[in-house]
Amino acid sequence: MARRAETSPEARPATALPLQAFAAAVLGLLCAGPALALYPKKGDASPHAGVRDARQRSIQGIDISRWQGEIDWAKVKDAGTRFAFIKATEGGDHLDPMFKKNWAEAKKAGVPRSAYHFVYWCRPAKDQVRWFKRHIPRDPDALPPVLDVEWNGESEKCGKKIPREKALAKIREMLKGLQEHTGKKPIIYTDITFHEDVLEGEFNDHPYWLRSTAAPLKHRYERKQWEFWQFTTTGRVPGISGDVDRNAFFGTEHEFSAWRDGRYDIGARKWRGGESKVATTPKPPATPAGLRTPKAAGNTPLKFAPPGKIPRSAQARDVATTGSIARD
Asked: Where does residue 32 rank: exposed (0-12), middle (13-18), buried (19+ CB within 10 A)?
């Protein structure tokens, strides 16, 4: 195939570069506009154009651990934070030292929150189930818990990968334990490598929280749907000093609210008991025999327009409508 000739910057007309710069600036504003309008108080120390779709999602939140230090949850809430994933436990013997405080203060500020457990592959699943049952509260107001599954490459003791089937068996046991403990279907957090090595095609009825900080999820994962997207590790949010991970929810306000109430399964994308219906005005009772008006109105015969004669105004109208939490 013939290669199209390229023109060097020196050979371009003098007006080409300013025009291109202006066009790029306009395009940047158009791409960033919706996100800025939704969350004007939030930012990113190192924004990436590859995740602009996540920034335009209307429901966004954060994930935090002790590394964020003291948090002013009232300011976090005021910035528009809709949910928070809070680190609780790790392996079979570690409790995040800020978990209890963050858990209580997030609730006090009115930020819906979820607790997450970071898996150690060198620890038996039963030990980890025992540990997170001991420390993750059974709070009916809390969001479903999260099981964080990724390879612990930075750990000297638990950095070794294990066979896929063994990893899946551990995950099944811990998902079961989390659901039994909280009464809610757990969310699975993972990254690109672990998903490719272990999770492709597995646990498809569970909500997935996926990490990609430089490209759309569809370019990084062999997965048709997602529920949460961790799109940056360099986010800036009032009430938190320094970097914080920012996340986006896949769906609508109605779906988010129904998921919180237990009426919508976001992993299976199914309504429990059917989707809520919009209330309609009840029909008035029919006149006697459906043919005549009441006597008080003269008892005159009713006349009906044939379907083709219904006024146009009364006809129906169409209505449009890369970082990781492992280090934490």
From this structure: middle
CB 145 within 8 A of CB 129: no
User: Which residue segments constitute the domains of the chain, with CATH numbers given?
Assistant: 48-266 (3.20.20.80)
CA distances from 147 to 178, 212, 272 (A): 8, 18, 23
Residue pLDDT, tens place only, 254-291: 999 999 999 999 999 999 976 654 444 444 444 444 44
Alpha-carbon Rg of the chain, whole angstroms?
27
Look up 105 and say whether it is catalytic. no
The vertex-174 CA angle with 62 and 145, nearest 5°, equals 25
* Rounded mean pLDDT, 96-117: 98
User: In this structure, what token pair is assigned to residue 266?
Assistant: 């976001």
Cα–Cα–Cα angle for 188, 190, 192, nearest 5°?
145
Q: Which of 6, 90, 105, 150 is catalytic?
A: 150
Q: Is 282 exposed, middle or buried (0-12, 13-18, 19+ CB in 10 A)?
A: exposed
Q: What is the DSSP string of 45-74?
A: SS--GGGHHHHT-S-EEEEE-GGG-S--HH
- Taking each helix axis from N to C end, the angle separating 125-135 and 164-182, rounded to the nearest 10 degrees, works out to 30
Distance CA 240, CA 215 (A): 25
Q: Residue 39: what are its φ and ψ, rounded to 5°?
A: -130, 70
Alpha helix ranges (H) inside the chain: 16-38, 52-55, 73-78, 99-109, 125-135, 164-182, 192-194, 253-261
Q: What is the pTM of this model?
A: 0.76
What single string gives the DSSP state of each residue in 75-107? HHHHTT---EEEEEEETTTEE-TTHHHHHHHHH
